[in-house]
Design goal:
Helix content is 9%, strand content 46%. It is mainly beta and 750 residues long. The strands form 13 sheets. Strands 43, 50, 51, 52, 53, 54, 55, 56, 57, 58 and 59 form an eleven-stranded mixed β-sheet that branches. Strand 56 and strand 57 form a beta hairpin.
Length: 750
């Protein structure tokens, strides 16, 4: 009885506290979402606006509360994000550092103004806090060995939380600092990890862990990729096998390096793994007499270059299978065998997952001896005879997508009851089991899994509209026993989008080069035709390599590049089934020795001698003047180098002499004696200039106009902007002080 009286008194007090006179405002309104969900450690922002009657005057205290209005368990002040607008006022709020069981609940909005006036909106906002699942974001720039790098780790969400701790694991940093930026109540707080990557950091795991509160943390891990110069490994070998010399060069680096053999002319093959490039070359021993010499292997990528002299190991005759091979070759062979076994085991483990069919969907078929060889289908229900097989199962994916002209490999394993005996004929079919439109035999990869049998198959030469459809596996054994698995595999064939791969070695004018074009995918497809277009080859060879079911087919074009082949487009087209085409195009870059152009000139202008030397070549050549000491300028375009030098005529008395210009790059050297043309005084702007100089000036103007027009046409054709290789860089060189001043002269300067 006493408890009931206390409850009535409490209710009367609340009614008295929140009783409004008839004149008090009644048209309060609020606009807010009712439910919000956040994650532990992060924050929730609730955007809200409300209106009040005109009789409610500022200042108005705005508070969100949870629990009993008279004794709330939590009070949250409003935050200003958008601000008040006209009649609408803001009531947004933010909950930070969310904790499950504490931050959850229903929140009400309370207004206080005037002399103890209070209004609580009936609408509530429900807050739900779940486990932390968001991960930090790790931003890794391009890493190059030896160059300083900064890796950013950003905490999940965008809340202000100065207590958040960010920790890196995996690599010892040079420095770690916190970078704060953002606006009030909005902040993404990255931690910056500074270090100098080295080749040994390649493929290293770097973990960033963000700790919000005790027992509330999240982390992300990235695998670093560090670009580094090539390193030729000591597993490289050269060995005389009977009447042949075989050399193998193994090099690591990122990007994967290209390997070539400067002193050997022969057919070589390159193989690429995730980490290494392997090049194997074989030449006749008759063309290589010095069996005690060393063979140079050169490995090169964008970062650098490496060389190694490999000692030739001589054997009198063809090698025999014995233990007389060197220890290094034995370890190399064992390593290869271990890698193959490991790959097979990994494949088996990944395919052990099975999808057992439902019992009521099994179909058991019996072939009866009838005149029309008709199959009688029997539905196997749970009431089947005890002697009938019941535990058929199959492990295979449901959907496969391929491209026209290529192939699809379906990997599959199945089990059968002990009552089903070998031999078992395995066939995949499409359509009606009694009259299938397509039948595909299974392929064998010699993979043994205890208790399981392989049912893999391959569809080659895919055709849209023909190869598509649903395929099922049929087993046949004993005296006309047949079982068809209920699972189906859906095959979808889309248009061919894959491109052939063109591998272009470093091209040097006059030196034999082999460019290969690989057919897309690794299918057995003898009907693919490979056609080259753009250059007349010396010879074309078509080759293939691989194992059953896997074949790499490629065409090798042999030719001798010349300077005129530079910037030429070479296209490789692969044609499947006479009508399905795909192609790739590359622009060849041919290195060639410098050539000094006839537009080079030397002229006396008043009391000064000015000479200009123009040279082409790749790499772009350097130009210098052996007999002149003065300040000269070099300008570089995509194709040419131009050098201009000016000296006082007082230091150069023989005005009828010639001036030597020398141009040099890694490929070669060129020289030209330029005749000095004498003029008595400073040239004036008149028609008294010599005819040759008039034609020279007109030629230069025409070249500039032509270049501009060509640039405009090329830019309209291409969607993306051209690279900066059309910019001109000028270098002022003073020989006495050896000071270089770099001036970037854009083609778009005013």
């Amino acid at each position: 009885m006493l408890q009931t009286l206390l409850f009535i008194l409490t209710v009367l007090q609340m009614i008295d506290c929140y009783r409004f006179d008839r004149d008090e405002p009644t048209d309060f309104s609020i606009l807010v979402t009712e439910n919000f969900t956040g994650e532990a450690g992060l924050c929730i922002r609730v955007f809200c606006s409300f209106t009040v009657p005109q009789s409610v005057s500022e200042p108005i205290r705005r508070t969100w509360l949870k629990g009993d209005p008279q004794n709330p368990t939590a009070e949250v002040p409003c935050v200003h994000i958008f601000g008040d607008k006209d009649n609408e006022r803001e009531c947004s709020f933010m909950l930070e550092n969310l904790v499950q069981g504490e931050s959850d609940g229903e929140y009400s909005f309370k207004l206080e103004w005037g002399q103890g006036k209070v209004y609580i909106f009936p609408q509530t906002v429900k807050i739900t806090v779940k486990d932390l699942t968001e991960k930090p974001t790790i931003e890794v720039p391009q890493l190059t060995a030896g160059e300083k790098a900064e890796i950013n780790c950003r905490a999940p969400g965008s809340c202000v939380n100065l207590k958040t701790e960010i920790v890196f694991k995996g690599i010892e940093p040079d420095e770690v600092h916190r970078r704060m930026h953002g606006v009030s109540d909005w902040d993404n707080t990255p931690s910056v990890f500074t270090f100098h990557p080295e080749p040994e950091h390649h493929n290293t795991n770097l973990t960033c862990r963000v700790i919000f509160q005790e027992n509330i943390w999240t982390e992300s891990t990235v695998i670093l990729k560090v670009r580094h110069a090539p390193t030729i490994l000591y597993s490289s070998r050269c060995l005389v096998w009977g009447d042949e010399l075989t050399c193998m060069c193994v090099s690591s680096g990122l990007p994967l390096p290209q390997i070539y053999w400067p002193i050997l002319n022969g057919e070589y093959y390159s193989a690429f793994s995730a980490e290494n490039t392997i090049s194997i070359i074989t030449v006749s021993i008759a063309s290589f007499r010095n069996l005690n010499a060393t063979i140079k292997c050169v490995s090169e990528n964008l970062i650098g270059r490496a060389e190694m002299e490999i000692q030739v190991q001589n054997h009198a005759g063809k090698p025999k299978v014995s233990w007389s091979l060197s220890t290094s070759w034995i370890f190399f062979t064992l390593s290869a065998v271990v890698n193959v076994i490991f790959t097979c085991c990994l494949t088996v483990v990944l395919r052990r997952e099975k999808h057992k069919p439902k019992d009521d969907n099994h179909v058991y078929m019996t072939s009866l001896k009838r005149e029309e060889s008709v199959y009688e289908t029997i539905k196997m229900s749970s009431e089947r005879c005890p002697d009938e097989p019941t535990n058929f199962s199959i492990s295979v994916q449901d959907n496969f997508t391929g491209e026209a002209g290529l192939c699809i490999r379906v990997y599959c394993f199945f089990t059968v009851p002990q009552s089903v005996s070998e031999p078992i004929r395995r066939t995949w079919f499409k359509g009606d089991p009694q009259n299938p439109t397509v039948e595909v035999p299974c392929m064998t990869r010699n993979i043994y899994i205890p208790g399981e049998t392989e049912c893999s198959f391959m569809l080659n030469n895919l055709v849209q509209g023909e190869s598509d459809g649903e395929y099922r596996l049929k087993l046949e054994w004993g005296q006309g026993k047949v079982y068809i698995f209920p699972q189906t595999i859906k095959i979808t064939v889309k248009e061919l989008t894959q491109k052939p791969t063109i591998n272009v070695p470093q091209l040097t004018a006059g030196k034999k080069a082999e460019i290969s074009c690989k057919v897309p995918d690794d299918c057995m497809n003898p009907s693919a035709d490979i056609v080259w277009d753009g250059i007349e080859p010396d010879k074309i060879n078509h080759k293939g390599s691989g194992v059953p079911g896997w074949e790499k087919r490629f065409s090798i074009m042999t030719f001798h590049p010349e300077p005129e082949h530079h910037n030429t487009k070479l296209t490789c087209t692969v044609i499947f089934q006479k009508s399905i085409r795909t192609e790739s195009t590359v622009i060849l870059e041919v290195r060639y020795a410098p050539k000094i152009l006839n537009s080079s000139r030397c002229l006396v202008w008043g009391d000064e001698l000015t000479c200009m030397c123009v040279s082409s070549g790749l790499p772009l050549p350097q130009i210098y003047w052996p007999i002149l000491n003065g300040e000269y300028y070099s300008a570089f375009s995509a194709e040419n180098t131009i050098s201009i030098i000016t000296v006082s005529i007082a230091s150069f008395r023989n005005l009828n002499a010639t001036i030597k210009c020398v141009s040099e790059n890694l490929i070669g050297r060129a020289e030209m004696e330029i005749q000095v043309q004498n003029h008595a005084g400073k040239p004036k702007v008149s028609w008294s200039l010599s005819t040759s100089w008039i034609f020279f000036t007109l030629s230069a103007v025409v070249n500039v106009i032509f270049t501009c027009c060509l640039t405009v046409v090329l830019r309209r054709r291409e969607k993306h902007k051209p690279k900066d290789d059309n910019h001109i860089y000028m270098t002022s060189l003073k020989r006495e002080e050896s000071v270089y001043e770099i001036i970037k002269m854009s083609s778009e300067r005013s």
